[in-house]
């Protein structure tokens, strides 16, 4: 506690003699303070708003008003202000109740020698709480900054990847927009959607290891060429697995070509072994790819893409994800930008 600070002390007391005794006790201390004494609910409320005390000393029982009501008002209007009961009638049971309600301490009027130490302790604790709150706010700001940097980095990597493959320019971003829309429609929390966003932006990052001539080949790929393309989820996983994401983003990337019946790659996972986020990415990836132009074929259109996932719903693709995706296009007017 800063010794040079002038403390604003609000005393709630309807007995003038008791109020003077409390003031006298305070004057014996090294504290520098300004005191305001009130005895009614309205004056107490006005003082909370305008006087803005650093600490409150309140009797428990007053005519027409009581200490518990004062404590509740304080917690509502100025929750960080320390509140100490100074009473001659506060029994142990009520004292415990008041502490549970948020009072910092209580001092009996026949033991006022405890008052100044109680005030100093309460102010020190309030200062520590204030410091902790500031640290928490600083950490939250740092975390948000890191999240922003991470997403900007993911976006930059996505753009860099697509420069190697101009025919699929914007693919990762369009997949991301659809995957996030599906997740939102399914009721996923925002922090989970953000991780799906990162995974969507990076789901094809492993294609950096695929020769450009294969990526832009105008004809059908040979089996050998396709096997090289099929390595991209594993390569993406290796690139991302050491990054400490909030969720297993690297696994979402690894699994986005897995299919429920085990026919997908790279590991032939089945059913619930495929993470829900990866199932969302898989459906979004198929719909975007089929509805867009590719070097080896013209765009098939969104109707053909939706027909494909509906035909294989529950076989290759998650039923709930498929129905949600179809609903977004047919009822919610979703469209790729």
Structure description:
This protein has a 5-stranded parallel β-sheet with strand order 2-1-3-6-7, sandwiched between helices. A two-stranded antiparallel sheet has the order 4-5. It has 2 domains: 128 residues, Rossmann fold, CATH 3.40.50.2300; 167 residues, Hypothetical protein af1432 (Orthogonal Bundle), CATH 1.10.3210. α5 packs parallel to α7 and α10 packs antiparallel against α11. The protein has 337 residues and is an alpha/beta fold. It is elongated, with a radius of gyration of 33 Å. The mean pLDDT is 88. Helices cover 55% and strands 9% of the residues.
CATH topology of the largest domain: Hypothetical protein af1432
Strand content: 5-15%
What is the C-alpha radius of gyration, as a whole number of Å? 33 Å
Catalogue the unreliable spans.
none
Average pLDDT rating: 88
Termini Cα gap: 58 Å
CATH superfamily of the largest domain: Hypothetical protein af1432
Q: How would you classify the helix and strand content by structural class?
A: alpha/beta
CATH class of the largest domain: Mainly Alpha
Please describe the biggest sheet, giving its number of strands, its sense, and whether it closes into a barrel: 5 strands, parallel
Structurally, the number of domains stands at 2
Explain briefly what this protein structure is.
By secondary structure, the chain is α/β, with parallel strands linked by helices. The protein has helices at 16-27, 41-50, 67-77, 92-101, 115-163, 171-185, 190-202, 212-215, 223-229, 232-240, 249-255, 276-291, 302-311, 319-330, and strands at 7-12, 33-38, 55-58, 61-62, 65-66, 83-87, 105-108. Helix 2 runs parallel beside helix 3 (67-77) and helix 5 packs parallel to helix 7 (190-202).
